[in-house]
Amino acid sequence: MSESPRPTGNPAHQNVTFPSSAATAHGYLALPPAGRGPGAIVIQEWWGLTDHIADVTRRLAEEGFVALAPDLYGGNVAHDSQEALRLMRDLPVRRGVELLSGAVDYLLNRPEVTSDSVGAVGFCMGGGFVLYLAAAEPRVSAAVPFYGVVQGDLPDFSGLRAEILGHYGERDESIPLESLGELRQKIKEQSGIDADLRTYPAGHAFFNDGRPEAHDPQASAAAWSSTVEFLHRRLS
Asked: Could you tell me which residue ranges the Dienelactone hydrolase domain spans (predicted)?
């Protein structure tokens, strides 16, 4: 996989640090062309904060959002699946949620952010963390898991305030389709929210255009356009 994102030379794209749970966390921030906009958190795959995640962050900024990708691995990026699995297992869910809550604090305190809540978009491991974060953090009002892999038990959704738009591949062997029905039911029973979980004729990681063997352009385009519309509707 690619290394963590390097500075582009564009002052609208920058590496940042912020306090999180009595520690210093790092992330990648992208500002929209207008300089101001609603806030959105981008949560990495199990590979780490790669060039692909930085690109997604910039794409959200181009759509009008102040977008922040927190670095959950502290600068580490996996280069093969075994290393990715180790890094993911070394990150307890509770610690990941603490880091992400710190990112919510940081983003909402930035003068460029015009919203009083944020959206969260995540992929694979990060899609799972979208659900954990939204369940724990009422300042998340829009949650978008892309093929979210949940580590362990589903969270308690009784405190959920976010609407959920999920994107999943019908050929994703890591997330059986029947599990989506269980997820939808638990969210509804515990929060009263009807989660919009959509499926596409694609496999796992279909949005990752840095992996040609997994990327599905048609599914990606459909999922992206609905994500952008959903975030604008919930955050504007």
From this structure: 27-233
